[in-house]
Amino acid sequence: MEAMTVQPRKPRRLRAVSIAAALAMALAACGGPAKDEPVRKWGYLTLPTGEQMRYSVTLPKASGTFPVLIEYDGYSAGTEPSIGAPWVEEGYAVVGLNVPGTGCSTGADRVFDESVGAAGAFGVEWAAGQPWSNGNVGMVGYSYAGYDQLWTAAQHPKGLRAITPNKNVTDPYRDVGYPGGIPNIGFPHNWWAEFPKIWRGAADRAKELDDDTRCAATVADNIAKAQKPEGDFGAQMSAHPFYDPFWAEHSAVLRTGKIEIPVLSTQSWQDEQVGPRTGYYEETLAPERTWLIGSNGDHHTDMTAADIRDTMKRFLARYVKGEDNGFEREPHVRVLQELRNGGDKENPVAKPTSIAEYPALPVPVKPMRLWLNRAGELTDHPAESNGGALDYRYPRPGSVVNNPLAEGWAPDTAPDGRLTFTTAVLPQALNFYGAGSADLWLSSTAPDTDIQVTLSEVRPDGQEMFVQRGWLRASQRRLDPTHTTELRPWNEFTEQAAEPLTPGTPTQLRVEIPKFAHTFRPGSSVRLTVDTPAQTGFWQFGNLKGEATNTILLDSAHPSSIVLGYHPAPHAEALPSCTTTMRQPCRPNTVPVPPGRGPNPPA
């Protein structure tokens, strides 16, 4: 193991560096650290495998020992953690640590697997034993850093007291790589292509902050390895179009049941990068040690909701600092309804219109089923014997929603390429939470087809608000009975499970609608749209190209329906804003709402 502390040798332009770096340079200019000023440390940890992980440490403005928070990722945390100064000001020593084979760390970049967890556990135990540490360690961060927390905690490292995995994935095939078995040719590949630039930036900062001259050579080597076939994770994803041992090796959800420490997770239902599914890993954890904050989709890289920040502070104070603040008695589930942007571009503060709280997971819901009919309606009455069928053309351009380069929800441009089913006006509010399922009887003129279902709210102000989307490749319809429930289909997605359609033959498909929370107001309607998969956030789909006519059957022998998890919850009376509600854009409604009275909540 190698550890060192280095101060910058000469001052540089402060506007180009972080707060921590500026403080370190000021200390160097004065000949050493002043009393009660932050101290920056950095170095390399030598793993039992011989690999060396780059780390950086920022200590609070005080003397003594401190509780520790670690950000562990494959970006540049070992040079400069993104969590930065706020946690130092809360009295924590903040450690940034780079995964082996990433940034300035040597070794093979395994991306996500058991070896990443083992290296993270080594880093935790090292931090717990440092002279500036009081032995209590927590982990923080979102996305990559969130996923790595789960791998690390499953290793049970000594000193790790709690983790806060935010906005991550744990079942990378189903969560992001192949939603519904359809290749996601957008975000995963674009994400992987960004690493050379990120790592070169880490090397520049290591030289600028710490005069670390060895990092640049390591970064060059890591980039070269990542571009070879055996090291190119994007290429490996494409080489494994079915769920197989490669995906199981990278699925933390198969290990999260081993975690025995408190966990606080945050999830965004319309997350434009990793989606909302997260492998449903929270179900594998002990409910008494698990807390969850869910919201509509604030940006993947944002943690701007004051409620989220404050909850994280109390959670970490309780379980890492050891404060007796009563956090263990707080509700284990908080749902931030209709999180909206505060409007300040420089320092946005996201606020919900209301908050629903529940004592523990799972949140109790009651399945509510609505049937599709040939009049384009969603009703609470089962299909009639002569219910008929409706056709749409495939593939036709589906509507793009939450494209980061063009915010909003695009209008439909191919009316013959979609079917819509809408309830009559609701007499009272319907609040839904969790996953749902579109259970469709479909026949096609092709042996395979890709399906997208979109749930939306048609409002009395003439706007249609986006709620959630799900996808399925019809040949991947086989379900795993050990995980499938009425509200959540769980597809096998193995090569052995793939089965083509018989053209013209009705076949039942269950399309997962990933988890969400939304209140449909009185006077609004619930709508389901069926069409061709289209860009959603950063996700783009490698759809099947074959032309087809797809038919949705609607008779009593083939009753197509959707089922959602109903649960009454507090909500604001007013409709949420179409302009400030995060990741739930609106567009003008162009399909008439059926006459009559919509369904009531289930008894």
TrEMBL record:
Signal peptide interval: 1-31
InterPro entries linked to this entry: AB_hydrolase_fold, CocE/Ser_esterase, Galactose-bd-like_sf, Xaa-Pro-like_dom, Xaa-Pro_dipept_C
Xref: Pfam families: Peptidase_S15, PepX_C
Residue ranges annotated for the Xaa-Pro dipeptidyl-peptidase C-terminal domain, each copy included: 313-563
Protein origin, superkingdom: Bacteria
Any one Gene Ontology molecular-function term assigned to this protein's record: dipeptidyl-peptidase activity
Keywords: Hydrolase, Signal
Name of the protein this chain belongs to: CocE/NonD family hydrolase
